[in-house]
Specification:
By secondary structure, the protein is an alpha+beta fold. Helices cover 28% and strands 33% of the residues.
């Protein structure tokens, strides 16, 4: 009788031990997976860092006004480069280069009564050469014809561009009267201008954009290099 009582208890104890061992092993594996995921996340660079490292500051001014109520997605707009810009490992964009962009849709889902989503795509030189570009709007300024000393100012040349590659996102409230600017280096768009009050936002001709700009194919190469670095680090 004692043998019959002890045998089922031994089997139950053995089953419990096996169950606890399996649970511990699963927990260890889960913990290992969690640690690996955290390590990979820690090694990933912030969004837009690879792009920012290959961008340079620039300034340009709209050559005509933009009206949010009338502008349609796909419509072109243009801004004129105020000073020459040497792209990182790329061509020189002379003063007067035309930066061509398109009205697009807001990929940041900003709320507002009136919005203008803009995307610069090309730089057209005076000799007709067209260079694909990636540009992020990092500042917007009202057009001015003269400074405080009443000296004339060329459109797009009124405010220095202090952007650096450490700035990956811009959220400027009241960048223009009743208008906010939202932009990210990692976004496909150059920036989104939003008004929570005005139902018909308008940018006047001569409105200045401070930009971070890069040649498009070199910008993509930079992103791929940063991704490769991340993959190598996570594999170590």
């Amino acid at each position: 009788m004692k043998l019959q009582t002890t045998l089922p208890l031994s089997i139950a104890a053995l089953s419990l031990a096996m169950l606890l061992s399996a649970s511990a092993q699963t927990a260890d594996q889960y913990g290992s997976m969690q640690g690996s995921t955290s390590s990979q996340s820690a090694n990933m660079p912030p969004s837009g860092m690879g792009e920012a490292m290959r961008m340079v500051p620039a300034r340009a001014a709209l050559n005509r006004s933009l009206n949010a109520d009338k502008a349609k997605p796909g419509e072109d707009f243009r801004a004129i480069l105020a000073k020459k810009v040497q792209l990182d490992n790329g061509p020189l964009l002379p003063k007067g280069t035309v930066l061509i962009g398109k009205i697009t849709t807001d990929d940041m889902n900003e709320s507002g009564a009136s919005k203008l989503a803009l995307r610069f795509t090309q730089a057209k030189l005076k000799d007709g050469q067209v260079i694909p570009i990636k540009a992020t709007i990092v500042g917007v300024y009202q057009p001015e014809s003269a400074n405080s000393s009443d000296d004339p100012i060329s459109p797009g040349d009124q405010v220095p561009n202090s952007w650096s590659d450490r700035i990956l996102q811009v959220d400027q409230i009241g960048v223009l009267s009743g208008v906010d600017l939202h932009s990210k280096i990692g976004s496909m768009n150059s920036g989104v201008l939003v008004s929570t009050k005005k139902h018909n936002m308008k940018l006047d001709s001569g409105t200045e954009f401070a930009l971070a700009i890069a040649e498009q194919h070199r910008h993509m190469k930079g992103m791929n290099q940063m991704s490769g670095m991340s993959g190598n680090n996570s594999g170590n």
